[in-house]
Amino acid sequence: MTDMKDATSFHLRCVDSTSPYRRIDEAMEGFDPSTVEQLERPIMKGTLCAALFRADNLWYRARILGNAGKGELDVKFIDYGNSERVAESSLRKLPAHLLAFEPQAMPSALAYIRAPRIDRPFGPQAGKYLQRHGLNQVHDAVVVESQAGQPLRVILMEEGEEDWTNSLNAFMLSEGLTVLEKYVSESSDDLPEQVAAWAEFENEARANTRGLWQHGNANGLLDEEEDY
Questions:
Q1: By 3-state DSSP, what share of the chain in percent is helix, strand and coil, each rounded to 5?
Q2: d(CA 13, CA 139)
Q3: Parallel, antiparallel, or unpaired: how do β-strands 105-110 and 152-158 relate?
Q4: Burial classification of residue 189, based on how many CB atoms lie within 10 Å of its CB (0-12 exposed, 13-18 middle, 19 or more buried)
C-alpha cells in the first residue's frame, strides 16, 4: 500500500517478480533534471512528466491533473497514488523509455465491507487502523473484483497467509470499524465460505458495542453517510 486517503480509498502497487516497479524506481533515482527539457507550454491536463516531490526532494513519474494558477499545477504521482501541488519549475519531460510503463499505483478498496469516510464518525479511527497495519507495508492481495474505471476490490493479508479470517478486512470488522456490505449480510449463497464466516466478527463487534456499533445501528450510520 503506497498511499491512502482514508479507510475507503487507497492505492496498491504490485511488487512481485513480474512488476516493472523496481526498474522504474531505479531509473527515477538516477533522474537528472539538468539534462532533461522543460515541459512545453501550455502544460496540458493529462500530460505525463517527471515531478519533484518536496517531502524527499526526489523526482517521480506524474500526471498533470490541472492548472492551479500562479505558476503551480496539481499532479498525481502515478506509481504511488498521492497528489501534490507543484511549481512549473519542478516539472520535466520524461524520457521515452519511462513513458512506456503503465502507472503502477492502482486505486483500491477493501472487498465485502463498508468503511466510514475520514470526516464521519469513526472515520479517523478506521483510517488510522488501516494506516498502521497497511500503509507502506507489503501484503498478499486477493483481487475479488476488477472493473474498468473502478477501484480494485481486494482482501489484504500478511505475506504467505491464506486464511481470509486473518485479513485486514476481517480484523477491521472485528474492531467495529467497518460493516459488511448489505449484499453480504442479506445473502451468502454466492459468497466464498470464508467471507460468510466474517459475519461472526461483525456479530461480536455488535454484541460488544465496539466502534461504529456504539451508535447502535452501524449500518444506518453508514447509510446516512452515503446520503451526506
A1: 30, 30, 40
A2: 10
A3: parallel
A4: exposed
Domain ranges of the chain: 20-99, 108-227
Residue 18 grid cell: 513480474
CA angle 68, 74, 80 (to 5 degrees): 170
Query: What pLDDT score does 20 carry?
Result: 95
| HSE value, Cβ hemisphere, 13 Å, CA-based, for 60 | 25
Question: What is 20-99's CATH topology?
Answer: SH3 type barrels. (2.30.30)
**Alpha-carbon distances of 1 from 81, 105, 141, 152, 220, rounded to whole Å:** 10, 9, 10, 13, 30
Distance CA 97, CA 210 (A): 51
Looking at the domain covering 108-227, what would its CATH class be?
Answer: mainly beta
CA–CA distance, 137 with 139 (Å, rounded to integer): 6
SS3 for 124? helix
Q: Which pLDDT value is given to residue 215?
A: 80
Whether 228 has a pLDDT exceeding 60, the answer reads no
Q: What percent of the chain is predicted at pLDDT more than 90?
A: 85
> Which residue type, as a one-letter code, is found at position 3?
D
Task: Round to whole Å and give the CA distance between 205 and 211.
Answer: 8
DSSP letter, residue 95:
P
User: How far apart are alpha carbons 76 and 140 in whole angstroms?
Assistant: 25
Beta-carbon contacts of 171 under 8 Å, excluding residues fewer than 6 positions away, are: 129, 133
Q: How far is C-alpha 6 from the chain's CA centre? A: 8
